[in-house]
Specification:
Elements (H helix, E strand, L loop, with lengths): L24 H14 L6 H8 L3 H13 L3 E3 L6 E3 L1 H30 L2 E8 L2 E8 L14 E3 L4 H7 L4 H7 L16 H14 L2 E4 L6 E10 L3 E11 L5 H22 L1
Antiparallel strand pairs: 1-2, 3-4, 3-8, 4-5, 6-7, 7-8
């Protein structure tokens, strides 16, 4: 499934609050703009001017700062703005504890079925943040990475999540991002990454064979909610000495079942 929609807005309308005694207009204007951006699939500079009743130069400076801080992305051809990864991070942070709580028993089930280490992570711009892990009990195993940030294009978790977006959006994400290559197997070219994501969409899961760390292989599957969009992804990591094509497929089936379980738990 390819999605371009955002997760539920991090700034939903709530009960009206009294105005603060000493309001800061610039802060208020920025928050209003973030709320507006979160509610729109695309935003033109003229719409920013109209919505905030400000001039062209002020609107341009506000949007430039949001782009600089990752709260917005600007299409280089059409010049329209879209919500950026930092805004998505706020939305995910609001529900990350709930997601982690629901994902935990599913991670335990994955480990009991596969005998290997299982992770759950979320996308943070062009990186993966590992939210939770259950390690294998095998002496030779992949250790957990909870709290770490790794380049999304080098991990099965990251590629599974990137594959839920179309190529144009992935290009936006990587427009100013460096594609690190931790190992000789790492993908360090955007066109190669897009080709890999196309394979990922076709088969329904992503793979990593020594791309983040030599000697470690993994498969990953994204969790996409029909209304709330991308929630995260599960992965199963295996020492390369035990990894085979047949094992990859078996793990991929487990991960797809895990994704369905999390979606059921979120209903």
């Amino acid at each position: 499934m390819i999605v371009r929609r955002r997760s539920t807005s991090p700034m939903q309308e709530g009960i009206a609050q009294p105005a603060p005694q000493y309001p800061i207009e610039s802060v208020d204007r920025t928050l209003l703009l973030l709320t507006y951006l979160a509610q729109r699939s695309e935003l033109k500079l003229s719409e920013v001017r109209t919505h905030l009743a400000i001039g062209q130069s002020t609107a341009h400076r506000l949007m430039a700062m949001l782009v600089y801080r990752g709260f917005a992305l600007q299409d280089p051809q059409t010049r329209v703005y879209r919500a950026g990864p930092a805004l998505f991070d706020i939305a995910r942070a609001a529900g990350s504890f709930d997601i982690a709580r629901n994902a935990r028993p599913i991670l335990e089930w994955l480990v009991s079925e596969s005998g290997e280490t299982a992770h759950f992570g979320v996308l943070s711009g062009t990186e993966v943040r590992y939210i939770d892990v259950v390690e294998s009990v095998s002496v030779l195993r992949v250790t957990g990475r909870v709290g770490q940030l790794n380049p999304a294009h080098t991990t099965s978790l990251g590629k599974a999540m990137l594959a839920t977006f179309d190529d144009a959006y992935v290009r936006e994400l990587y427009a100013n991002a460096e594609m690190a290559a931790p190992t000789k197997q790492s993908i360090a070219d955007l066109d190669r990454l897009l080709s890999e994501l196309a394979f990922t969409r076709t088969r329904g899961w992503a793979r990593n064979r020594g791309e983040m760390q030599s000697g470690i292989c993994s498969v990953g599957a994204a969790v996409v909610h029909a209304d709330n969009g991308l929630l995260g992804a599960f992965s199963i990591a295996t020492p390369q000495a035990r990894s085979t094509a047949a094992l990859e497929k078996a793990h991929a089936e487990l991960l797809q079942r895990a994704a369905r379980r999390l979606l059921t738990a979120r209903q």
